[in-house]
Write a structure and sequence with these properties.
Blueprint (H helix, E strand, L loop, with lengths): L5 H10 L22 E4 L7 E7 L5 E7 L2 E7 L5 E6 L7 E2 L2 E2 L2 E8 L5 E7 L11 E5 L5 E6 L6 E8 L5 E7 L11 E6 L5 E7 L7 E7 L5 E9 L11 E9 L5 E7 L4 E9 L5 E8 L7 E7 L5 E6 L9 E10 L5 E10 L3 E11 L5 E6 L12 E3 L5 E6 L5 E6 L6
Antiparallel strand pairs: 1-30, 2-3, 3-4, 4-5, 6-7, 8-9, 9-10, 10-11, 12-13, 13-14, 14-15, 16-17, 17-18, 18-19, 20-21, 21-22, 22-23, 24-25, 25-26, 26-27, 28-29, 29-30
C-alpha cells in the first residue's frame, strides 16, 4: 500500500492555492480543501469490492478493486462524485474445478507521468485455474497503456506494487508452489521496467507453502522492505495442514538480495498486512494475531526498526465476550503532520462472518490508541481496505452498505461522520 510521506505532504501544502497566477512564470495552483463529510455508493451492484485508494494532486482520488469478477479502477472528485470508472475486460475471468473465480486489483500507485500502475491477484489459488496475476499500467484516465502477466509457470498473486524512485516498478506477493512442504519458497518480489518487462524476480521463505508478502516500501538506500506472513509447523499442525504463521519482516537491497529478516509471533497465527515509514526512520507495521487456538483474532500494531526489531507494540486486549470475535488492521497511513497513525481494518464474528469496516488511530510516537470507530455495513471478505488522508485532513476510505454494496466514506480527522 502506498503512503504519502510527511515531506511530500508538506510540499503539497506549499503548492496548494485556488486561482490562476497572474505571473505567467508561476504554475497554476489548485486548492483542494473542501470541508466534506459523505458516504456514497460506488461501483453499482455488480459484485464490487475496493482494495486500495490513492489521493491525487488534482483534488481527486483513485481506487481499485474488483467488479464483475475483473480488476476495476475508478476516479472520484473531492465530494465523492464519480469522474470515471473502468473494468479491465482484457483480463480473463479464471475458470477451474470450483467454477468461475475472480481477478481483482489488490493495490495501485500513482505514477510520475500522471497515470497509475496496479497489480492483480486470482481469488482461487488452485492449479486447475491455471491463472496468474497481472501488472496493468494506465494513463490518467484509466485507459490501459500496457498489461503484463506475472510469471505463469505457476500462478503468481500480486499483493502490492510501487513505483520506485528510479521510475520502474516493484511488486510483491505469493505464488502457487508444488506441495505443502517445499524448498521452492512461496513469497516473491519482482522488479519490472517502465515498459513492463521483467528485470528480476526473487523468491523467499521456508519449508512450508503459505509464505506471503502483503506490502512493500522502498528504503532511502534504494532497497526494499516487504512484510507478510511466514508459515511454520507447530503443535498438532504441520505444513500439510495449513501450519501456523509468524509476522514476517524482510529487508533487501535494490536487487532483491536478502539483507535481514525477522519473524515475530507465538505458537499460533500472526500476519503483517501493511507498512509505513515514520518520521524517525522506523516503521509502523499493521498486523493481526491469534496467539493460541483458544484466543480470538486481535488487531496488532508494531513499531519496528530497519532490521525488524520491535521498538513498541500495541496489543489489542482480548474480547471479554468469548472467542468468536475478531479484529484486524489491514491498511495504515501516517497523517500529514506525522503525529498520528491511522489504520483501516475490520471487526467480525468467527468463523469469518458479519464483517464490518473499522478505523483505529494511534499516537505515532508511543503507539497509544487515540480512538476507534465502526462504520456499519457488511462485506463478505476481509481483503484489503484502502484509506487515505483527505485534502481537508479528514479520512477517506472504502466501506460497505448493509446490503454489502461498496461505498466511499469521508470523515473528519477523528473519524466522525
Amino acid at each position: 500500500m502506498k503512503k504519502l510521506y510527511p515531506l511530500l505532504s508538506v510540499l503539497f501544502l506549499i503548492y496548494w492555492g485556488c486561482e490562476e497566477s497572474e505571473d505567467p512564470d508561476t504554475p497554476n495552483i489548485i486548492e483542494c480543501s473542501l470541508d466534506t463529510l459523505f458516504s456514497r455508493e460506488v461501483g453499482g451492484a455488480s459484485n464490487t469490492d475496493g482494495y486500495d485508494i490513492v489521493r491525487l494532486d488534482d483534488c481527486g482520488y483513485v481506487g481499485v478493486g474488483k467488479r464483475s469478477s475483473r480488476p476495476w479502477i475508478m476516479k472520484i472528485d473531492e465530494t465523492g462524485n464519480e469522474i470515471w470508472s473502468k473494468i479491465f475486460e482484457e483480463v480473463p475471468i479464471p475458470q477451474g474445478d470450483f467454477g468461475s473465480g475472480h481477478q481483482y486489483a489488490t493495490a495501485l500507485d500513482a505514477t510520475t507521468d500522471g497515470g497509475f500502475v496496479l497489480c492483480t491477484s486470482v481469488s482461487t489459488n488452485h492449479p486447475s485455474y491455471n491463472s496468474t496475476g497481472f501488472i496493468i499500467k494506465t494513463d490518467s484516465s484509466g485507459t490501459t497503456e500496457w498489461i503484463t502477466e506475472l510469471p505463469s509457470n505457476r500462478a503468481h498473486h500480486g499483493k502490492d506494487i510501487i513505483q520506485t524512485v528510479e521510475g520502474d516498478y516493484v511488486v510483491v506477493g505469493t505464488w502457487f508452489v508444488s506441495s505443502a512442504e517445499t524448498s521452492e519458497k512461496s513469497a516473491f518480489m519482482a522488479r519490472y521496467t517502465e515498459s513492463g518487462s521483467l528485470s528480476w524476480i526473487e523468491h523467499y521463505g521456508g519449508a512450508c507453502d503459505e509464505d506471503m508478502f502483503n506490502a512493500v516500501i522502498q528504503k532511502d538506500d534504494g532497497g526494499f522492505i516487504a512484510v507478510g506472513q511466514f508459515e511454520h509447523e507447530g503443535g498438532v499442525y504441520n505444513c500439510d495442514f495449513y501450519g501456523y504463521t509468524d509476522l514476517w519482516f524482510v529487508s533487501t537491497d535494490s536487487e532483491g538480495y536478502l539483507l535481514y529478516e525477522s519473524m515475530v509471533g507465538g505458537p499460533a497465527w500472526e500476519e503483517a498486512t501493511d507498512i509505513v515509514m515514520l518520521m524517525d526512520g522506523s516503521f509502523a507495521v499493521s498486523a493481526k494475531k491469534r496467539h493460541t487456538i483458544n484466543h480470538p483474532i486481535n488487531a496488532w500494531l508494531l513499531n519496528m526498526d530497519m532490521t525488524g526489531n520491535i521498538l513498541w507494540e500495541w496489543d489489542e486486549p482480548d474480547y471479554s465476550g468469548g472467542l468468536r470475535l475478531g479484529d484486524d488492521l489491514q491498511d495504515i497511513i501516517l497523517s500529514g503532520d506525522s503525529q498520528t497513525i491511522v489504520a483501516m481494518g475490520f471487526t467480525y464474528d468467527l468463523p469469518i462472518d458479519n464483517i464490518v469496516p473499522n478505523v483505529w488511530a494511534f499516537d505515532a510516537a508511543s503507539g497509544q490508541q487515540l480512538w476507534t470507530n465502526s462504520y456499519g455495513g457488511e462485506t463478505e471478505g476481509t481483503g484489503r481496505a484502502g484509506i487515505v488522508e483527505a485534502f481537508d485532513h479528514g479520512l477517506l476510505f472504502f466501506g460497505y452498505t448493509n446490503g454489502k454494496r461498496l461505498k466511499i466514506i469521508k470523515t473528519d480527522s477523528e473519524g466522525n461522520m
